[in-house]
Amino acid sequence: MYATKNVRPRSSLSTDDNHRIKDTNRPHKAPGNTILTLVAFCVFLLVLCGFLLGALVYVGKNIADEHQRQQAANSTQAALNGTIRTVYVDRDQLLSTKPILSVFSDNRAPTTTQVPSNTKSRAMSTVAPAIRAASKVLQKLGYRLPKEMKPSKYKLQLRPDLNQKNYTGNISISLEVLEPIAFIPVHVKQLNVSTVDVQHLDESGAPLKSVTPTLTFSYPEFEYWVTEFEKPLDVGNYTLRLNFNGSLTDRITGLYQSSYWDKLKNRN
Ligand SMILES: *[C@@H]1O[C@H](CO)[C@@H](O)[C@H](O)[C@H]1NC(C)=O
Ligand SMILES: *[C@@H]1O[C@H](CO)[C@@H](O)[C@H](O)[C@H]1NC(C)=O
Ligand SMILES: *[C@@H]1O[C@H](CO)[C@@H](O)[C@H](O)[C@H]1NC(C)=O
Ligand SMILES: *[C@@H]1O[C@H](CO)[C@@H](O)[C@H](O)[C@H]1NC(C)=O
Ligand SMILES: *[C@@H]1O[C@H](CO)[C@@H](O)[C@H](O)[C@H]1NC(C)=O
Ligand SMILES: *[C@@H]1O[C@H](CO)[C@@H](O)[C@H](O)[C@H]1NC(C)=O
Ligand SMILES: *[C@@H]1O[C@H](CO)[C@@H](O)[C@H](O)[C@H]1NC(C)=O
């Protein structure tokens, strides 16, 4: 073992020094000192072996950990890829100051997703002139959702495609109209949205009749998707269903896909 050459001096030097001093005085004690040197050397070798063993165990453990991490990453990828996620959000979570959505996968094992807050200054884009002309509710839009309605439940499905790096999804929003209102705004950001339908529900929560929107448009100033009606909606319970799609890679907003460079492994 090459290491013994380097380290030998430490334990054997002191003995050697002794040796030399004692050599001049009592040369006949030399055999005992040689045994001492050998014992010290053996102890040193033992310690060295201990260190090497420790190092081996450490490296082995790291390899095992890395393997586990990879497996976990692989199974996460496989689980996310192409499967439909269902998200249930209740009103308390919406009103909570912490922007956290509880996400239940299809097998109901809860995970948590941090929703980035939309505090960035808004792009001062304007709606298309056609919308400006057609809409009867534009001037009624503000930053906050109107007090005439109260959303109670969101059922969200997401289908990410990790290969195409985009996703589709749909959402069914249960809401209660407290006072007649002719539009439903929902917050969206960097999404392609379309309104599927709006159902007026009866007392029991069953669909009563479908309400046809007259205009749907996105309103980027306030990050809204607006579903507008000819006449104000009657007081009562409704469900609004939307389809949407978006990119996983455009930016770090909402649902996104990201990777990082592992400097140690020199790979993604
Ligand atoms: C993870 O997937 C990659 C290819 O996508 C594969 O090379 C690797 O062996 C997998 N790792 C494990 C631990 O299954
Ligand atoms: C994701 O799903 C597609 C098919 O939907 C499949 O071709 C691809 O190999 C999957 N990718 C991963 C990383 O599992
Ligand atoms: C995702 O990207 C692929 C390839 O660019 C495209 O064909 C597909 O329509 C996109 N899907 C969505 C939901 O945007
Ligand atoms: C949208 O919702 C329907 C159920 O209403 C579901 O069958 C479909 O898979 C969903 N699509 C996506 C992209 O999540
Ligand atoms: C994405 O959404 C837009 C707007 O709803 C829609 O026109 C388009 O067909 C969607 N694309 C896909 C691939 O679903
Ligand atoms: C709307 O639903 C709520 C429960 O979410 C219920 O308390 C209320 O009575 C319903 N209103 C109508 C008009 O059905
Ligand atoms: C909307 O869809 C189009 C094509 O379907 C796509 O090119 C565009 O990136 C999508 N917009 C967003 C914000 O994902």
UniProtKB/TrEMBL annotation:
InterPro entries per record: Aminopeptidase_N-like_N, Aminopeptidase_N-like_N_sf, Peptidase_M1_aminopeptidases
Transmembrane segments: 35-59
One Pfam family here: Peptidase_M1_N
Keywords noted in UniProt: Aminopeptidase, Hydrolase, Membrane, Protease, Transmembrane, Transmembrane helix
Biased composition (Basic and acidic residues): 16-26
Gene Ontology MF, one: peptide binding
GO biological process: peptide catabolic process; proteolysis
Region called Disordered, residue ranges: 1-28
Domain Aminopeptidase N-like N-terminal: 150-263
GO cellular component: cytoplasm; extracellular space; membrane
Coiled-coil regions listed in the entry: none
Protein name in UniProt: Blast:Aminopeptidase M1-C
Organism: Drosophila guanche (Fruit fly)
